[in-house]
UniProtKB/TrEMBL annotation, chains A, B:
Its cofactor is heme b. GO terms for molecular function: metal ion binding; transmembrane ascorbate ferrireductase activity. It comes from Mugilogobius chulae (yellowstripe goby). It is a multi-pass membrane protein. This is Lysosomal membrane ascorbate-dependent ferrireductase CYB561A3. Residues 11-219 form the Cytochrome b561 domain. Gene3D superfamilies: 1.20.120.1770. One of its GO terms (cellular component) is lysosomal membrane. Pfam families: Cytochrom_B561 (PF03188). Transmembrane reductase that uses ascorbate as an electron donor in the cytoplasm and transfers electrons across membranes to reduce iron cations Fe(3+) into Fe(2+) in the lumen of the late endosome and lysosome. Reduced iron can then be extruded from the late endosome and lysosome to the cytoplasm by divalent metal-specific transporters. It is therefore most probably involved in endosomal and lysosomal cellular iron homeostasis.
Length: 246, 246
């Protein structure tokens, strides 16, 4: 049972690493590197930060409760790890958005015109709302049990929805950037499939494969953290339940 | 319970209709109409057939077992409806692919160069394999029960994966087509957000919203067709089980 999980989890970790390597290499090798100075290089942070935040960190944080070695440990610790990783993911995606807005301002390019940008901004808005609702519902000790119980299936479902949004945003963004940069240099260069295009198309495929790996882990019920764990439950009762016990 | 289902199902039907109206209007009003003659108009079938097949028909067929009024009827009838709708969806998407390949040949444009096309072709390949496996596993009476039992969760999971692929393909395709057509006429016209761009961006949002509606229906367990239905079960035993009964 656990071997199946660790195989898929290992695959996801390898795909995470490959996605990171591919997106950084794209910026370094083909797009001239990185800078935060309003130049063309400023934009190159956008794909790196979005893929790192919305895909790699988000996906790895989504499956953190599934790690069998954590099931004997207090759930609160892993809630904090999950929330912390998600916060970092949100921070990176926020920085990634600001990289593209700064670049647009510097080159007088209008913001939010493509369907990629519409889906992308919706992803970050949904993700921010999900994070704030998760914080209020599951981490603040004053939130009542009925809220936690009703919020949990919605939180899990919204988590998967946001990952679908992230995959759509990243793949459409890669397509857009390749069309704009390669075709901007010489007519229809993207369709001659230069090495950059093949390499970055593969990045798109790696991102989708990672997303599917995460969905695969989330879809297996026996890999869920067991709910019945009285010790941890007592350690993390909401306030009003704790006071009833006292 | 059923009212929640019918609300979401009604929403999905409305979104299906809107997606169809939007994608046909795009072709008719802004792209000059439709023809099957190797001209620019030949390509216009591509978005219409892909959205109709991979999104509208596929999504509606995925939720056909959830309709409460079908639960008292023989499951075999609804298996045939599901398989028939999926076959039609596959046929439309095959035609949609041929529209783009014909257009590329006529205008000497290379095939399968963008990440949209890579994800898109993977979607149709996965969909074809899923349909054939579904036919062999669930409709051919000679397939043994253990195959049906093991295949069912994989079939359901793959069905959702293919829908995610379809959404990625459609949104990235819309983005690509707008970048290639609008920017081909005057520099960076897409980023000035003409009416066509706003209209077609909304088509992308409608497609994503429809996909989420379908995922919403599929994620609610109490909306699943009840499994325990001995009458229907006897009516559709695989051959080897029927012979044991006799």
């Amino acid at each position: 049972m656990a071997s199946g999980f660790y195989f898929l989890y290992g695959l996801c970790l390898c795909l995470s690493l490959l996605c990171a390597l591919f997106v950084v290499s794209w910026g370094l090798y083909w797009r001239g590197g990185f800078a935060w100075d309003g130049s063309q290089l400023h934009f190159n942070w956008h794909p790196v930060l979005m893929v790192s935040g919305l895909v790699i960190l988000y996906g790895n944080s989504a499956v953190v409760y599934r790690l069998p070695f954590t099931w004997k440990q207090k759930k609160l610790i892993w809630k904090l790890v999950h929330a912390g990783m998600m916060f970092l993911a949100l921070l990176l995606s926020g920085l990634g958005l600001s990289a593209t807005f700064d670049f647009h301002r510097a080159f007088n390019i209008p913001h939010l015109y493509s369907v990629h940008s519409w889906v992308g901004i919706s992803t970050v808005v949904l993700f921010s709302s999900q994070w704030l609702l998760g914080l209020a519902g599951f981490l603040l000790p004053c939130s009542p049990t009925w809220i936690r119980t009703s919020l949990k299936p919605v939180h899990i479902w919204m988590g998967k929805v946001i990952l679908v949004f992230s995959l759509i945003s990243c793949v459409s963004g890669i397509n857009e950037k390749l069309l704009l940069t390669l075709n901007g240099v010489s007519a229809a260069l993207y369709n001659t499939l230069p090495v950059e295009a093949v390499f970055v198309n593969f990045l798109g495929i790696l991102i989708v494969a990672f997303g599917l790996g995460v969905f695969g882990i989330l879809s297996v019920k026996k890999w869920q953290r067991p709910e019945a764990d009285p010790e941890n439950h007592v350690n993390y009762q909401p306030y009003h339940v704790s006071s009833q016990i006292k």
